[in-house]
């Protein structure tokens, strides 16, 4: 390592939530000053830790300070940034330190695991293969993460790391714990191979120029939650060509994260367990609970309850297997066993429906967010959507089904509408 040249070096690394940009001033071989130019960490955790890390690094002239408990990703990103600043100040050719020893390396790190519907700590194991100083293969053969969220994020990140030959990987929205586990594991494998993860993180590959593409289909469905997938499957069954635009890169909908209770009456699963029930009784019970609500739509409630047997059959025809039927409360009319359950909760329901939709030919596109509807003379004619590369897709369709979920995913609307 050479001597450090005086100067201010701007460096950027990935923190827990977004980029951490620092300006590190070096004078007479010492850290003279560290300015935080940008950061998006959680204010009370990572944000607070950053301020403390800056003070420690400045005070001790230390390029690798001890991590702060509870903010390990932020601490790691901070130290990576300092290493990058040091490398820049040494004025050595970065490519010279890119060397990786050929071979396959493995590591196991903490990751995500759901326990009784709550997030918890699990494990993931990575196998990374390097050849001729390149990342040639990344596999995650074992993990506790939810298959259609964390598992999908691992695939996405592996493809990106190999394509970019970089560890400068954004967190996959909705799977941040799994994404950070992936980044940690890849860094570990690079270290084992004699490489420096910081150098790989600094290799930002130029993005291609976004394109504009025109597509035609019969029906566009916005959102791949329970509503969107069911609508897409039904439309496909009726002979339509269907494209689903799903904003997230993984199945991160409320449906996936839900308990997966599907209410229904007069179903085969109830009959299997000797439960006698009718859709009329279902309506009367629900009505008795909500009849005093000022915005109640009795017609819709009647449809919801009366169609529940058919919906239940539809789900079973599309791969759903019930693990049983239970009540949602032991009190009053909710004590009746109408809540159909799956062993894998909402994630299992969605996994079954995604598989069925894709087998039936639904064009399900992840990471494609609809920006606006195309209208002509007051009629909807399609949508304009944008993918993660910034490409614009103009999708012409005779019908658009909006199944983008409720306002609960919009913090500003939650604040506005939930006054309590
Ligand atoms: C923790 C939890 C537990 C729950 N448990 C139950 C339960 O047991 N039983 C029950 O009946 N209900 C339950 N609910 C409620 C239930 O999950 C929701 O009512 C239901 O999932 C809504 O389904 P949906 O398809 O309408 O929307 P969502 O499942 O929210 O799907 C909407 C999809 O649209 C996508 N999207 C949004 N905007 C765009 C855009 N511009 N372009 C493209 N895509 C977009 C989103 O990314 C999302 O994937 C629960 C909810 C939560 C959060």
Topology:
Blueprint: E1 7-14, E2 19-27, E3 30-38, H1 43-60, H2 72-90, E4 103-115, E5 118-131, E6 134-143, H3 147-164, H4 176-192, H5 197-202, E7 212-222, H6 226-237, E8 242-246, H7 254-257, E9 262-263, H8 268-272, H9 279-290, H10 298-306, H11 308-317, E10 324-326, E11 339-341, H12 345-359, E12 363-366, E13 368-376, E14 379-387, E15 392-402, H13 411-417
Parallel strand pairs: 7-8, 7-15, 8-12
Antiparallel strand pairs: 1-2, 2-3, 4-5, 5-6, 9-11, 10-11, 13-14, 14-15
Bound molecules: flavin-adenine dinucleotide (FAD).
Can you walk me through this structure?
The protein has 13 helices and 15 strands. It starts with 6 loop residues before the first strand and ends with a helix. The model has no long low-confidence stretch (mean pLDDT 91). It has helices at 43-60, 72-90, 147-164, 176-192, 197-202, 226-237, 254-257, 268-272, 279-290, 298-306, 308-317, 345-359, 411-417, and strands at 7-14, 19-27, 30-38, 103-115, 118-131, 134-143, 212-222, 242-246, 262-263, 324-326, 339-341, 363-366, 368-376, 379-387, 392-402. Helix 3 crosses helix 4 and helix 6 (226-237) runs parallel beside helix 12 (345-359). It has four domains: 7-92, Alpha-Beta Complex (Sufe protein. Chain: A); 95-202, Sufe protein. Chain: A, CATH 3.90.1010.20; 208-260 and 342-420, FAD/NAD(P)-binding domain (3-Layer(bba) Sandwich); 268-340, no CATH class. The protein has 420 residues and is an alpha+beta fold. The strands form four sheets. A six-stranded mixed beta sheet has the order 12-8-7-15-14-13, covered by helices on one side. Bound molecules: flavin-adenine dinucleotide.
